[in-house]
Amino acid sequence: MSRFTDSASTSYSLSILAMEEASRVGQREADIDHLFLALTVSEQTAGQVLRSLGISIDAAREAVASQHVEQLAGLGIQAEAPGPGRIVFHETDGYEWGERAAKVLQNANGSGKRGDAAAVLRELLAEPSGMIESILKRLGASSEAVRAELDRVERLSDRPSGSKSADALSGTAAAFVPAPIDDVWRLLSDASRLPDWDPTIGSVENGIAASSAGQSWAARTRSTRPDGTPITVKPRFVNQRVEVAEVDEPRLIEWRAAYPDAARANSRRMSIALEPAAGGTQLHIEYAWVRTSTSRVRRLLGLVLRPLNRFLIWIQLGQLRAGISRAFR
């Protein structure tokens, strides 16, 4: 993956994760503590290093909350940490980066730096306020320990390839979910729970857990956004048919979705491989629009729209990753 793609992908995924964490405590500005929380569930090397040191999302949330209470007490303000809240980022708007977090991201993308999650973590460790060092101390770690482990892992491993697209209508991405593989499997393999993580599906009729390839259900396309805003859906795209193309419990699930009222429309394919990882489950997601027409005109149109298609696939992969992760946070 190029430096630009690394940077863009990392900034996009960390922005979603950090602002989701900010939304849990009723904030609209994501600061360095939210960025740190986002890194604990990153699928990249930085997240793997933090989790290998025993820094889980739950432990980090507790440490961040305790740090804020102590800071307020130092100002003579007695307050309890906010209770655990629900992520509402996808249902609301008005979020932005705080000055400190924006500076960290800017530095991670500076000259000679790659802009991936490891670069962001290194800049966060060097951030001068001392907040991250204090949080790490509460977690039984230190900036030096995290930096040393990051150095060791990066020396031993090749740089991950990350998401890629060999075709204008397909792409892949890695993701980390802070939950055991069996829990993640139950989410991804249950047709009735597709609306919980697939942003295009609003409901599934009589959905149950998938047990064999060939099972299929009638579904309806989502007609409202999480914030209640209506989505305009053309009549021929209202109905979907979701089918299990492949299932290997609890290692692989592949879903296909077609539009029975739009015979010439591309169908969608989502293949998700699962494997246990420290602190949760690692996912490899393949997403594709499957052509139903191979006419010369359609092929030429595909070439013309290739850049747009790549961008849309990238966005949809990001939405899938966010939806699956959010279900367990």
UniProtKB/TrEMBL annotation:
Pfam family, one: Polyketide_cyc2
Protein name: Clp protease
Taxonomic classification: Bacteria, Bacillati, Actinomycetota, Actinomycetes, Micrococcales
